[in-house]
Amino acid sequence: MFAGGVGITGLHSHAAVQLMVVTEGQVELQDLYGQRLVVRAALIPTRAVHAVHGPGATAVFVYCDPDALLGRTLQDCFTGKQRDRLGAWAAAAGPAQRAAEAPTQDRVGQESLRALAGGPRPVRVGHPALRRAIDRTQSLLGGPVRLQDLAAAVDLSPSRLGHLFAEELGLSFPVYLRWARLRRAMELVREGATLTEAAHRAGFADSSHLTRVFHEMFGLAPSVVLRSIRWNT
């Protein structure tokens, strides 16, 4: 979770599911098709291209891993072409708008998630081989990670495992791997590592590589949010 100034970003997309709840000021979102909408809250699915315009505004941003139960639950709010449509993002987050009135930023995040995912929903059980592949990926992030090697370790063909990543997480394997490395790097920075140290330990070539991937997925420089983001898994 990150709480603070919204600012202005270019078009970008997340590997995480993002919930944004505006706490002060005005925020306008833009989707891939050029549609613009002023929102009080928005739920943005994985890989949905968008830009944010909110100079002077503040908001709470919650990023949920797509392989976690909460992330999967929020992903289920969208079907088909809705994933790319700005109106669908605002509509999906409608129940979370009242959370902006909560007294603290943590409460805003907690109450907005409760409003969206707190009701009874069927629990999707992920493929066990995909779960093992994800766990193995996490243990190998400091070095090279190849789909072929993961597939062999979980007794699937590379094509079948790649299909499971896309089907269950909404991400291709390369995108998921970049996200996993990025998250590991952010955790290391929060623990006190420099950007260069975090980049190498998370499997990036260097800090410039980490910065490029961060900007691709957040539309912002790492220095803006790295040390203040907290994860909701």
UniProtKB/TrEMBL annotation:
Q: Which residues form the HTH araC/xylS-type domain?
A: 131-228
What organism does the UniProt record list as the source? Answer: Streptomyces parvus
What Gene3D superfamilies does the entry give? Homeodomain-like
Task: Give the record's keywords alphabetically.
Answer: DNA-binding, Transcription, Transcription regulation
A Pfam family per the record: HTH_18
Q: Which domain of life is it from?
A: Bacteria
Indicate what this protein is called per its UniProt record: Helix-turn-helix transcriptional regulator
Keyword Transcription regulation assigned to the entry: answer is yes
A molecular function annotated in GO for this UniProt entry is: DNA-binding transcription factor activity
